Amino acid sequence: MSMEALWTKREDSDFLDERVEDSGLRVALSLLRGWPSAKSNSDIASDTGLSPSAVRDQIIGRRGDKEEWFEMEGKDYRLSHTGELRMISLIPSLLGRFLPELGEETRGEPTSESTQS
């Protein structure tokens, strides 16, 4: 299943497929889809069906640096230029944990090196 196949059109907005159940993965996919444009918690919440506070909890909880994020953005998390640079390290770790959930097509074919180990 491709990343675009995970999005469905509803009225004037695109929403993530409900089969993607993990909220951390939903946040990561929303950020990836809009990259490199900045997204606010509200933008991500609209994409994912999560509340803005749940979005913030996913981002902060996975980073483990709550105070730094709040100081950086005054308690309303938004991806600033600095935030975008930090998010690029967050996204692969989130996606790496959940690639099997997205389907076999996203992982590609195994190479001969990986099958011989």
Please, could you describe this protein's structure?
By secondary structure, the chain is mainly alpha-helical. It has one domain. Helix content is 56%, strand content 7%. It is built from 6 helices and 2 strands; from the N terminus they run ββαααααα. A hairpin with a 2-residue loop joins β1 and β2 (13-16). α1 packs across α5 (81-102) and α2 packs across α3 (52-63). The radius of gyration is 15 Å and the shape is globular. The model is unreliable at 62-86 and 104-115 (pLDDT under 50).
Keywords:
about 120 residues, mainly alpha, two-stranded antiparallel ribbon, 6 helices, about 55% helix, disordered C terminus
Outline of this structure?
The chain has 117 residues and is mainly α. The protein is built from six helices and two strands, in the order E-E-H-H-H-H-H-H. It starts with 6 loop residues before the first strand and ends with a helix.
